[in-house]
Amino acid sequence: MEIANFPSLTGEEFLEACHHLDGAYCRAQLGPLRKRWKLRLRMAAQADFLFQDVPNSYIEITRPLDPEDLDIDLEILRKPVIRKDGAIVCYEIHLHPTYRMPCLWFQIQGLDTGESQYDLDTVFRYLVPEQYKEGLRRYGGIGGISLDNHPVKGDPWFFVHPCLTGDNMSAFKCQISEYLIIWLGLVGGCVGLWVPRQMATIK
Length: 203
Description:
By secondary structure, this protein is an alpha+beta fold. It contains 7 helices and 6 strands. The protein is globular, with a radius of gyration of 16 Å.
C-alpha cells in the first residue's frame, strides 16, 4: 500500500502499519527471545481520550530492563550494564494527532524503592546509550525526551518528541509494510529499543 502523504500517516495508514509490525513479530523465528521481547497490538478502551482520525489501536512492546536478558550485543549499546532483575521497560507506539507521525511513549516499571521512574536522569542512566546522550540533552524537550500525561492512560510517561521524525523518515521512501520497522530503527535506539533482526528480514 502506498502512503498518500509520506511520511505523514492517516489513522487508517497507521492502523495498517501496526498490523504489519504485529504480523512480522508473529512470523519471526525469535526462539527464547519471544518470552522476553514481547510485542502486542492493543486497543484503547477509553475512547474519550482519542482525537479525530487517530485510531484507538496502538503497539505495546515490553522487554527486561537488563539488556543482558535480551541476548543482544552490549558493545552496540556502548553503555555499562546495570542489572535490575524484575524491572521492565514498556514502550508504546501511538499516532501523534498533530504531527501525524508515530510517537514512542515509554515507562520503566518495577524499579527499586527510592528510584523514580519519572526522573529523566533515571531514563538516561538505564536506557539511553552513550552515543545519544549529548544530542538528546541538547535538544531538551523539543526534539528530545519529554514527560507528559499518557494519551490514553493519563498517568505520566516519557516520550520521544516527534517533531524531527518526519525529516528523518523522508529519506526512506517505503511501503506501509516496512514503515514501522524503519521508524523504530530511527527512533527506538536512543531509548534502548532495538528491533530483533529476525523481524527486520520478514517480508
